[in-house]
Design brief:
The chain is mostly helical. Helices cover 76% and strands 0% of the residues.
């Protein structure tokens, strides 16, 4: 991670850097292991005055990625779902529960999944199969991601010292040390020259 962040720091002032991060956020639904929250934090640490632009851009790219996943799913159908999520996913209890959840709550189910920490990919796949409209998928994903990405971007804009003194030292973070340590590690690694 440290080597990756050093490379990122080297290119952070380039005009193509934010579009690259946005592209990575868009394909995050296709390649599940990309740490979007970490990418937005490191980007903001390198350009703290642009924290809202970073959050807005990455959120929009992520929502466009959700639409791209839905379109690809509708175009290629079950073989695509089996390729991206595994052949057993279509018959799993996760699929069935997600299907019921989206049938009942639709837009709000996609919004909540985008806001939460769990992968959004299964929800988008099911929403596409259930023929949820593409604008509804876009806006639900966008509205769910904007508070989350704005929060991470704003935290990073304040810097490591502020996070250590104000956030990590807060008593409520003692209950969830993994999140505290994750935030501190990203900020600490990104601020090293």
């Amino acid at each position: 991670m440290k080597r990756f962040i050093k490379r990122l720091r080297k290119y952070a002032s380039k005009p193509w850097f934010l579009p690259l991060i946005c592209f990575l956020a868009a394909i995050d639904l296709f390649v599940v292991f990309l740490p979007t929250e970490g990418m937005i934090m490191t980007t903001t640490l390198m350009r703290p005055r642009r924290w809202f632009l970073n959050a807005f851009s990455v959120t929009t790219a992520s929502a466009l990625g959700a639409v791209a996943l839905a379109i690809t799913n509708r175009t290629y159908g079950e073989p695509f779902i089996a390729w991206i999520a595994g052949p057993e996913f279509l018959h799993s209890t996760t699929w069935q529960k997600t299907e019921v959840w989206i049938e009942h709550y639709g837009f709000w189910a996609v919004l909540l999944s985008a806001l939460g920490p769990l992968p959004q990919q299964p929800v988008i796949l099911v929403a596409a199969v259930l023929h949820m409209t593409l604008p509804a998928i876009f806006f639900a994903a966008w509205l769910g991601r904007i508070p989350k990405y704005s929060f991470f971007s704003y935290l990073a804009s304040r810097g490591e010292k502020w996070i250590r003194e104000e956030v990590a030292a807060h008593p409520s973070f003692n209950k969830i040390p993994r999140i505290r340590d994750f935030l501190l590690k990203i900020v600490h690694d990104a601020e090293k020259p």
